[in-house]
Design a protein that fits this description.
It is found in: Cell membrane. Keywords: Cell membrane, Membrane, Transmembrane, Transmembrane helix, Transport. Its main location: membrane. Residues 62-280 form the ABC transmembrane type-1 domain. The chain has a single domain (40-291), classed as MetI-like (MetI-like fold). Helix content is 73%, strand content 0%. The protein has 11 helices and no strands.
């Protein structure tokens, strides 16, 4: 009886904590969405000509966030995929390997502001990229490489050893077995990691303040020549992202209706992050069901 009572007490205690956390998160999300709802409109999402005027939109900042996210993923995915495959399939359990794994874990826990300062010194100053899209993409790649590498390694390690043995029994080499059997089986976990990294990149602010910059120059969306300074695809132009825009509105107060615009931008950012996390879960489940048939 005492064990049953203790079990009920522990269950009640844990349930209360879970409900409390859920209520806290739900209250936060509802507050952000309700406060930002009055500012949301199609013009608000697409306007690119009224950066700091009353009723200004977030079209440029939204595009900058998407552009930097795509460039960051293009840098991170090949490197993380190669590093994750090596650590999971080829690396032996030596002192050097353990050191690299510890370094990856340390990198995963570094504050983004530290990565931003490092990116500023290396990419903005040393490589003379200036505050630019490419400097921001490289800085965010440093921030997320370790996280995505661990996700890829864990996804590959979760593949049943019998599948590797089956590939080798069919006469496939080790590399062919990894690329044709192991990696496809690990795709659900890899895709989940990629989508989560995309969400992290989209919502990042601290690292981009010191690398991509805090200004959003006027862009001509009819010019798609990457070498043109007014082109949206120019990687050497400053690029204020949505998260940085929110911080700037609340810290400088240059826009007459800045609090309302910041609330609307915050609501858009929260919605997009929720979509990224939902997409990661849905894609992971769909791919797992499809590949397990």
């Amino acid at each position: 009886m005492r064990k049953q009572q203790l079990d009920r007490l522990n269950t009640f205690f844990l349930s209360t904590i879970t409900l409390g956390v859920f209520a806290l998160v739900a209250t936060f999300l509802i507050y952000i969405l309700v406060k930002g709802a009055p500012a949301l409109s199609w013009e608000f999402l697409t306007s690119v000509s009224k950066a700091f005027e009353e009723g200004g939109g977030i079209g440029i900042q939204l595009f900058n966030s998407l552009y930097i996210m795509i460039l960051t993923l293009l840098i991170c995915i090949p490197i993380s995929l190669g590093a994750g495959i090596y650590l999971a399939e080829y690396a032996k359990d030596t002192r050097t390997t353990r050191f690299f794994r510890m370094a990856i874990e340390v990198m995963s826990s570094l504050p983004s502001i530290v990565i931003g300062l490092f990116g500023y010194l290396l990419f903005v100053v040393k490589f003379d990229f200036g505050f630019s899209v490419i400097a921001g993409a490289f800085s965010l790649s440093l921030l997320n490489l370790s996280f995505l590498t661990r996700m890829v390694e864990d996804a590959i390690r979760s593949v049943d050893e019998a599948q590797r043995d089956g590939g080798l029994a069919l006469g496939l080499g080790r590399f062919e077995t990894i690329m044709k059997i192991v990696v496809p089986s690990a795709i659900p976990g890899i895709v989940t990691g990629v989508v989560l990294v995309a969400g992290r990149v989209f919502g990042e602010a601290a690292a981009l303040i010191f690398s991509a910059g805090q200004s959003a120059p006027a862009l001509d969306f009819t010019v798609w020549n990457p070498m043109n300074p007014a082109s949206p695809l120019n990687i050497f132009r400053p690029a204020e992202t949505l998260a940085v825009h929110i911080w700037k509105l609340n810290s400088e107060g240059l826009m007459p209706d800045g609090p309302l615009v910041a609330a609307g931008a915050g609501a858009v950012l929260v919605i997009i992050i929720l979509l990224f996390n939902t997409l990661a879960k849905v894609l992971g489940n769909l791919l797992e069901k499809r590949l397990s048939r």
